Amino acid sequence: MYSIDDLHNIDDSFKHHRTLTIFWVGFVVYTIGYTMSITSNPIFMICDLMRLIGIVLFIGSSFLMLSYKFENKYLKFFYTVYLTWLLVVVLRGLDLDYEFLKKTLFNPFSGIFLYFAPLILLIPKPPLFYKMVFKVILLLTLFYLIHIGLSFSEMLDHENAGSRDRLEIFVKTLALSSGFILLTYSYQPKINKIIAALSLLLAVFLAVKMARRGLLFITGVVFIFTFLMFIYSNKQQLIYILFSIPVGALIVGMGYSMLYQSDSLLFKKLKDRATEDTRSGVEEFYYVDMELKDWLIGRGMSGLIAAPMGIEEDSKTPGYREGIETDYLNIILKGGILSFGLLLLIAVPAMFKGFFLSKNSFSKAAAFWILLWLLSIYPSTVTTFTMNYLLVWISIGICYSKSIRNMSDEVLKQYFLLTNSEYKKLLQTIKEPTDLTE
User: Fold this and answer.
1) pLDDT for residue 419 is more than 80
2) Does Transmembrane appear among the keywords (predicted)?
3) What distance in Å separates the CA atoms of residue 172 and residue 192, rounded to the nearest whole number?
């Protein structure tokens, strides 16, 4: 059983503090460069430069830290097979054309880096790694609030297709990961919880306003999972649970009533979208175009799929598109059932271990994050090079780590809620001899 002293000793023995910081700085710079590039009036030279700097920083630093060590032999085997297959998927779709390289390097949603996101599992993770993760999530959330603040009037225009797309990218790239702060709320200071809750509530409001069903589903599930974490963390306080369950049911009932009985324009658009079928036509083209070999091994990183006319008519390949909004079908398009199956063989047991073989809320929050990703791969595209998807692999590492799963909540709360300076003061107080004459 680890003590708080053990966790700080592990941090002190970690030799890559600065390198880890550089990695996260590079990732944040890359992410902000991308989100700036999809605003209404981007300065592409600055956006491209930021992404290029970010790439240099996070690639260079990550290769200095990568370590092929595992606590779990099952994970080691299937992860190795999965990484090998991802390399094949990338090589099958690689092109040395300048435009292709620029697009695949600079686009976190369909580029090459989403295939390398699992490598974060190989970065050594002392306890301070998770503290850094929390800080990065909050930093991205603040940038999300800045983006929304600068374009709020535009975000209220639900007839503007560009605004709808930008909102979805802003939330998935910058805000959604704040749900992990809510799931780990018992380890967070009050200000972190407030920022995370406000950002996701704003995302819910804008998702309703812009009639984005996928976003509303994902953010809604985050709040449901947070409620379940609250029940787990307060299982000994029966009065809170008995009070919170009917309150939660009341809120859900009011939401349903407002959506289906209200005449408000705010809910009318969402209600119309809720019954609108925008997927079946696209998916029918997908099923017709895919052959047996494609189902088994996919078409590679650059694989295209047939789509109804009117979709991406201005592209170089009219009648075909680079992917599909249904994420699990997109994974199969690129890497086949082999890729999707290996991913499930890694993720599902991790989730099971986090839920049922752990002694702390941290592991259960990680399991909930994996479950959130699994539930989101139908209504939305979430397998991307974003903090949201990196957290899936970080959570997989947490759930497979027996040492993390066996840590006590008390030690983890002390570690995450005490700053380094506060911990040193506490140590000094403990070590000072007591004057028995006083």
Assistant:
1) no
2) yes
3) 19
Interior CA angle at 149 toward 144 and 154, to 5°? Answer: 105
pLDDT at residue 310 tops 70: no
Q: Counting every residue, how long is the chain?
A: 438
pTM greater than the 0.85 cutoff: yes
Those residues with Cβ within 8 angstroms of residue 151's Cβ, 6 or more apart along the chain or in another chain: 39, 40, 163, 166
User: Cα 308 from chain centroid?
Assistant: 30
Among the listed ranges 69-83, 158-172, 244-258, which one has the minimum average pLDDT value?
244-258
**24-46: average pLDDT:** 95
Q: How far apart are CA 318 and CA 349, in angstroms?
A: 41
Structure tokens at 138: 């909050």
Residues 6+ apart with CB under 8 A from 322: 110, 302, 304, 305
Angle at 207 between CA 229 and CA 393, to 5 degrees: 45
Classify 129 in phi/psi space as left (phi over 0), alpha (psi -120 to 50) or beta.
Answer: alpha
**Nearest CA among 134, 187, 137 for reference residue 408:** 187
Please list, in sequence order, all residues whose beta carbon lies within 8 angstroms of the beta carbon of residue 333, skipping any fewer than 6 positions away: 286, 290, 294, 298, 299, 303, 305, 323, 324
pLDDT tens-digit readout, 370-402: 999 999 998 888 999 999 999 999 999 999 999
